[in-house]
Design goal:
This protein is of the alpha+beta class. Helix content is 67%, strand content 13%. Strands 2-1-4-5-6-7 form a six-stranded antiparallel sheet, with helices on one face. A five-stranded parallel sheet has the order 8-18-19-3-20, with helices on both faces. A four-stranded antiparallel sheet has the order 11-10-13-14, with no helix packed on it. Strand 16 and strand 17 form a beta hairpin. The longest helix is centred in the first third of the chain and has 193 residues. The two termini are 29 Å apart.
């Protein structure tokens, strides 16, 4: 299909737009966003598929919102042998009109026109290819083009196979056969190979019959097992009754032994209680003795602490008195150091004032010299400027004079070289005239740059007239001479040599001016120096008035000499050093006084703390001594010791008695009477339980055997075995038919997969060729059976389609469609539509994609919708249609 012309009227925001498209090559519809580029494809789709009477939401959505007008789309198309003009109008006065111009002329309207176009498209248009070769804005980036019969036929032909007809009928026949076989297989098996429908029902019914047969066999086997078990249970009941009687006798003997052992345990527990009571009494007596000893030691310790605190307080009071005397002496030294520091500070202040006066005098002398140098430099600059003002010939004017002089010389040389030369030989003096000049005897030459006259007195006159070229050269010489005279007049000199002399004089004057300016710049800006000079003079005057007109010997503007300044500075440094030394001594004295005061205050605080501590220690010693005296009055130390010894002896006696009883108990417990009794009772209980359970099982089994005898289980087993045999035969027959259908389907699918792999190769080769133009020589691609891009390889690295960037997937989607368009024959081809499909491509990839478009487009029609000039600038042969609102 080819689109030759497309007209849109009142389609969404497009009021009127008509496009004339070439039959082949790249057509770029360029315009800003929302200008209606996507509407072009949408309008063509709606024209070919929707009736003029349609009220679908997609048709109503294209109605313009800014005015009440019908929507109209008209297209001139070619499909196979047909060429026709198709027009539809929706919403208001709906109508359809068709004009077929080839292969024979037809004119239809309404439903007939719509049906005729659908028939033409069904006959000539590969619908799958028309949908596959689009890459629309906002649609998923899919690369599948396997739904096209035209592409399948082209790939089959490229792979060396036969398409079976112009439209791939052989492939369609194979697909129909595979579908019929798949349908037959589906009668028996699902896609995963599991039974289905009748086959599954037969298998389930057979399984149920087999389960019933197995259950009947098990039931019959259970009867025989129950008979055998009944006899075993009768024998087991007799054995358990005998075992139970023997176990009961053993348990009675063990109970008598345990009763005697429990009586002995009661005696041991009573002995334990007596030992515990006497141990507590002994511990209380020992604790009373220990408390009395600790209180005596505490009273002695506190008395010793009181004596130590009294001795330490005496030492602190003596140290405090010594610190007070030292502080008084240090304060006297600090006062003397303060007087010395004040005297040194006054001397330093006077020396500093004298040094500043000497420095100011030196600064005045230096500033006066700089001001004088500045004035002399300004006079030199003014004189150099005055000398330069009368010299007009500068370098530029000199170059013009020399260029004009050179032009005159060149013009004269050219004129002389081109003019004829005249040789005149005078045989006697005074007879020949050359250009009005009398020639002496001899030979003369002249150049006839202009008209030249040679005359022989009284005999002949010869005029030499040069040709047109010589006259032109003569005029050139005259023009050059006029130019030279004009520039010499401007320079005020007679010739070029004079101009060079005048220029040399100007250069000398400019050098003198530059030298004067350098000296002036070397002096610098003296405005600050002048202000400083005036300030110092004013200070000198003020200082003179303050000193009664005498000054300080250094502020008269000229009295201080360099040696005086140095001496004054040295005196100031010495005075400052003396002042710093005195201040250091003063600071040392202050620090010593502060340290002595701090030590005295610390000692005083220690005395006060010692007195308080002494009072507390004295109170504690007195309290401890009083408590010890009261305790001894109540119970002397000897009485407490005797009570503790008696309690310890009673405890040892009780422990000896308990030890004997426990030894007898241990000897009896080693016989394990409790354990034996527990074991005998457990064995008796187990024997009772086994006997009870066996009697219950025997009774149940007896009842079950009586009931089973009336059920007829053998007859039931025979009937169900007959049913299983019939169902097994039916299921085997169905299984054979299912296996045959499955085998045929597997063989056909394998051959179809092989055919698909065979025609995937040409498509991959074409895609690889185009891709290397965009991505480089390391590009490769893998396709699945549906011709989708599965992965891309670049620089030896393979990346799955889902993991590629949006730009790379976008570029591969474009390349897939271009490869498909280049493989399909022009008769079966359809336009390739790329709607804003290159927005994520960098400039280099975009340029290479443009080259691929230019390579593929000549046999195909490619429509590219782009917002800017990036695409068509990469495809020089593209037809650009600029769209605007």
């Amino acid at each position: 299909m080819k689109v030759h012309r497309l007209l849109l009227k009142d389609f969404r925001g497009v009021e009127h737009r008509e496009l004339h498209l070439p039959e082949a090559g790249v057509v770029v519809l360029e315009g800003a966003n929302e200008v209606g580029k996507t509407s072009v494809v949408e309008a063509l789709d709606m024209l070919l598929t929707e009736k003029h009477s349609s009220r679908k939401s997609s048709v109503l959505a294209v109605k313009p919102v800014h005015r009440d007008a019908p929507t109209c789309v008209e297209a001139e198309l070619s499909c196979g042998p047909y060429r026709f003009t198709y027009r539809k109008q929706w919403h208001s006065r709906p109508a359809t009109a068709l004009t077929v111009s080839a292969p024979r002329r037809e004119q239809l309207t309404g439903e007939e026109a719509h049906a005729r176009v659908l028939a033409i498209l069904a006959e000539t248009l590969d619908e799958g290819l028309w949908r596959a070769l689009r890459l629309l804005q906002g649609a998923p980036l899919d690369t599948s083009v396997a739904g096209s019969a035209a592409l399948a036929a082209a790939l089959d032909a490229a792979a060396g196979g036969s398409s079976g007809g112009d439209r791939g009928d052989g492939a369609d026949g194979a697909e129909d056969l595979l579908e019929r076989v798949a349908a037959r297989r589906a009668e028996f098996l699902t896609a995963s190979g599991r039974p289905t429908a009748r086959f599954r029902a037969c298998g389930e019914e057979l399984e149920r019959a087999v389960a019933e047969r197995d259950a009947a066999a098990r039931a019959l086997a259970e009867v025989a097992a129950d008979v055998e078990r009944h006899a075993a249970l009768v024998a087991e009941r007799a054995r358990l009754r005998e075992h139970r009687d023997r176990t009961a006798a053993e348990a009675d003997g063990q109970r008598a032994a345990v009763a005697a052992l429990e009586e002995l345990r009661t005696r041991v527990r009573a002995g334990d209680e007596v030992v515990a009571q006497r141990a507590r009494a002994a511990e209380e007596a020992r604790a009373a003795v220990e408390r009395r000893r600790e209180r005596a030691e505490d009273a002695a310790r506190r008395a010793g602490e009181l004596a130590r605190q009294e001795e330490q307080l005496v030492r602190l009071r003596a140290a405090e008195e010594e610190a007070a005397a030292l502080t008084a002496r240090l304060e006297e030294a600090r006062a003397a150091a303060g007087e010395d520091a004040d005297a040194a500070r006054t001397a330093w202040s006077r020396a500093r004032a004298a040094a500043r006066a000497a420095e100011d005098a030196e600064t005045l002398r230096r500033l006066a010299a700089r001001l004088a140098a500045h004035e002399a430099a300004e006079r030199d600059v003014a004189a150099a400027r005055a000398a330069l003002g009368g010299l007009l010939v500068g370098e530029a004017l000199l170059r013009r004079v020399e260029e004009a002089d050179e032009a005159v010389r060149v013009a004269r040389a050219a004129a002389e070289a081109a003019a004829p030369r005249v040789v005149v030989e005078a045989l006697a003096d005074g007879r020949v005239l050359l250009a009005g000049e009398v020639l002496p005897a001899g030979t003369r030459e002249a150049t006839a740059t202009g008209e030249l006259e040679v005359a022989v007195d009284g005999l002949v006159r010869v005029r030499v007239v040069p040709g047109g070229g010589a006259r032109d050269l003569a005029e050139t010489v005259a023009g050059a001479e006029r130019g030279l005279r004009a520039v010499l007049a401007e320079a005020g000199v007679a010739d070029a040599a004079a101009a060079r002399g005048a220029a040399a004089e100007r250069r000398a004057a400019e050098g003198a001016l530059a030298l004067a300016r350098q000296r002036h710049a070397a002096v610098g800006d003296v405005a600050q120096d002048r202000a400083e000079h005036e300030r110092l003079l004013a200070e000198r005057a003020t200082a003179g008035e303050d000193d009664g007109g005498d000054g300080d010997g250094g502020r008269d503007g000229s009295a201080a000499a360099p040696g005086d300044v140095g001496a004054a500075r040295e005196a100031e440094r010495a005075a400052r050093a003396a002042e710093e030394e005195a201040r250091g001594r003063l600071d040392g004295a202050r620090a010593a006084v502060a340290e002595a005061r701090a030590r005295r205050e610390g000692l005083a605080a220690g005395v006060r703390g010692g007195e308080a501590t002494l009072r507390v220690v004295a109170e504690e010693a007195e309290r401890a001594a009083g408590q010890l005296a009261r305790d001894r009055d109540g119970a002397p130390d000897e009485a407490l010791a005797e009570a503790a010894a008696a309690a310890a002896a009673a405890l040892e006696e009780a422990r000896a008695q308990l030890s004997g009883a426990r030894a007898e108990l241990d000897a009896r417990e080693r016989g394990a009477a409790d354990t034996l009794l527990a074991h005998a009772e457990a064995v008796l209980a187990r024997a009772d339980e086994d006997l009870r359970r066996t009697e219950a099982d025997l009774a149940t089994l007896t009842v079950r055997l009586e009931l089973v005898g009336r059920e007829g289980r053998q007859a039931a087993l025979d009937a169900v075995e007959t049913t299983v045999e019939a169902l097994a035969a039916e299921h085997a027959a169905l299984a054979r038919r299912a296996a045959a259908a499955d085998l045929l389907h597997e063989v056909l699918a394998r051959h179809r997969a092989a055919a698909r792999r065979r025609y995937v190769a040409p498509f991959r080769d074409k895609l690889r060729t185009l891709g290397r133009l965009v991505f480089g020589d390391t590009f490769d691609v893998e396709l699945d059976d549906d011709l989708r891009v599965a992965s891309r390889e670049l620089h030896g690295r393979t990346v799955r389609w889902e993991q590629l960037s949006t730009g790379a997937r976008e570029q591969l989607a474009v390349l897939v469609r271009l490869a498909c368009a280049s493989l399909v024959s022009p008769e079966d081809g359809v336009p390739v539509v790329l709607d804003d499909a290159l927005g994520h491509s960098d400039p280099e990839r975009l340029r290479r994609l443009g080259a691929v478009l230019g390579l593929v487009a000549p046999p195909a029609q490619v429509l590219v919708m782009a917002p800017g000039p990036g695409v068509h600038s990469s495809v020089p042969a593209a037809t650009v249609v600029r769209l605007s609102h």
